[in-house]
Amino acid sequence: MKLSQICILSLVLAGAIFVAFASEEGGIIFTKEDAKQTKYLDPSTADVNISFEDAKNKLISENPEVINESVHGELIDDENFGIIWRVSSKTTNGKSIFAGIDASNGEQLFVYDGSKNVQGKDSISKDDALKIAEECIESRVSADKINDIEFEHVNYVEPAADDLPGTYKISYARIIRGIPSLSDGIQVGINAETGEVSSYRKRWSMSEEEIALIDTEPGVTDEKAVEILKEYMSNEPSIGEEKANTVKVISSNLVWKEDDEDKIHLAWWIRFMDSSFAKDATYPASVWIDAHSGEMLLFDYYRD
Q1: Are the beta carbons of 98 and 115 closer than 8 angstroms?
Q2: Strand bridging mode 82-90 / 149-157
Q3: pLDDT-derived band of residue 77, with 50, 70 and 90 as boundaries?
Q4: Which of 79, 87, 77, 80 minimizes the C-alpha distance to 47?
Q5: What is the pLDDT of residues 79-131, one digit of tens each?
């Protein structure tokens, strides 16, 4: 892999997660990347089970603040969620709400809600937020799928302004054959002032049939994967052997990971630092190495 192939990732992998941002007015702002991943479909010719009226009623039934007359939407083929109705509306307090409804079964796959009245005073604890997230998931997810998710982490996100509340982002990974999926799972956002669910996202796209053909016992040990990492770094002119020899592994875990061609790999996900990182570096580097072939799938290492 050439240096030009080194990718910069955020803490949440951009290719794995649908991203939308709520403006201070409650509207939704899409990035250019979202547009690349979206294909608009003609509802009159598309083969779907859920009509726009069905999707509209789903949004209204789960979000009583919605103003019925303001609901609008479009049928799209989204790279992450498949064919969905993307619906949005104004709410009774002038804010916006936005959701994705599965066009095959009517399931609400994600929602971003900017309608909650707030004063910017957090009162919800982390434990409270976890309990609220669990209750939210239990109300939305079937029992068989609940058994296939595992709590990952909870992060507190500081408010964007003094008069806004913070948000707890709570993530659960989808577990397939005892190993977490890097892309699939559930993320719930909890308003730290009101305790309301401000966002919900569920992705469940990895093929269990494809994964069933992959041996879950790695052919490459994590120790060997670290050796592959160090050798790779040594051969990169911008990094070199000196830094490679200072690699300190933070964690090493097996995960299911899709490559650029959507092929699924059993991979070692190794988080690490070297001498170029500050001792208190918040975000270590990461690498994903195929746990059978030793192939470098992705190298996330960026230094100024």
Answers
A1: no
A2: unpaired
A3: very high
A4: 77
A5: 888 899 999 999 887 888 889 999 999 998 988 887 766 666 788 999 999 99
Residue the block writes with tokens 């726009």:
52
pLDDT of 231 > 60? The answer is yes
Burial class for 197, CB neighbours closer than 10 Å (0-12, 13-18, 19+): buried
Mean pLDDT of the chain: 84
Largest CA distance in the chain: 64
Q: What residue type is assigned to position 252 of the chain?
A: S
d(CA 137, CA 127) in angstroms, rounded, equals 16
**How is residue 118 annotated by DSSP?**
-
Residue 6: pLDDT band (50, 70, 90) is very low
37: which DSSP letter?
T
Q: Where are the domains of the chain?
A: 1-34, 39-206, 222-300
Q: CATH classification of 222-300 is 3.10.450, yes or no? A: yes
* Residues β-bridged to residue 271: 251, 286
256: CB partners within 8 A, 6+ apart:
176, 179, 180, 181, 182, 206, 211, 264, 265, 266, 267
- CB-side neighbour CA atoms (13 Å) of 243: 19
| Strand duo 285-290 + 296-300: pairing | antiparallel
The span from the CA of 130 to the CA of 168, in Å, is 9
Report the chain's C-alpha Rg in angstroms: 21
CA 83, chain centre distance (Å): 18
Local structure of residue 3 (DSSP, 8 states)? G
